[in-house]
Amino acid sequence: xxxxxxxxxxxxxxxxxxxxxxxxxxxxxxxxxxxxxxxxxxxxxxxxxxxxxxxxxxxxxxxxxxxxxxxxxxxxxxxxxxxxxxxxxxxxxxxxxxxxxxxxxxxxxxxxxxxxxxxxxxxxxxxxxxxxxxxxxxxxxxxxxxxxxxxxxxxxxxxxxxxxxxxxxxxxxxxxxxxxxxxxxxxxxxxxxxxxxxxxxxxxxxxxxxxxxxxxxxxxxxxxxxxxxxxxxxxxxxxxxxxxxxxxxxxxxxxxxxxxxxxxxxxxxxxxxxxxxxxxxxxxxxxxxxxxxxxxxxxxxxxxx
Length: 305
Description:
By secondary structure, the protein is of the alpha+beta class. The chain has helices at residues 28-48, 52-63, 69-74, 108-121, 136-145, 154-164, 214-221, 225-231, 270-277, 281-287; strands at 90-93, 100-103, 186-190, 195-198, 204-207, 245-247, 261-263, 301-303.
């Protein structure tokens, strides 16, 4: 195993054929919904500093892609209840309790505006606006922790929708993540600024730096951008945060010992779990007898080997 290329860094690994991506299912009904409301979401992102990806994911989830009774009859796309400060029209539906009061709007666009103002004006959501505009994972976790929904899988559902449908493309701004590049694994070699590691399961990987993309890492290490994306089971334009693991070879079918199980935390997806342990997503789903549409819920226990 060598690390040379015309005097500069090259990671030369014995990489065999690239396994196919574990297909991300794009719901055609969801795609139609995103196409209809993406411009509103982008405009509200610019005006109110809420990620467009989060707005669209919440909208499609809460409204059943605009087909729920609350959305169809009351144009309420975000499941916002009346609360004491609501002076507009009202409608009543069963939710956590029977016959609860929900806000009723003249147009779906009014629901989008009220949703943005709802988050901006309520102190409990203030911490979210300290996050970077591209940190959709932080926003999803924060919405759940701040009590937007009682569903324990709420953040994970939002993240899955965003990643499956690549909604992060609608977000803008630089990443504000400040994750530390901690690792107890072996450091193989340093390039100009990029360290290459070998994990306990034998996988070779790097930690993304601030502002890195699959292209910048591929260019520095002499890989093809598309190959790195395939090894990590995401599209080439998938946004990286500082500290993210980027594998330089295909992942394993099971985790290294002693990692036998994983307890799901808020905001984790099957992809983030597969990256943490270097397991192929297909293997992780199969080992736990889960269908591709499964969304892990906080507290779920997943087998790793």
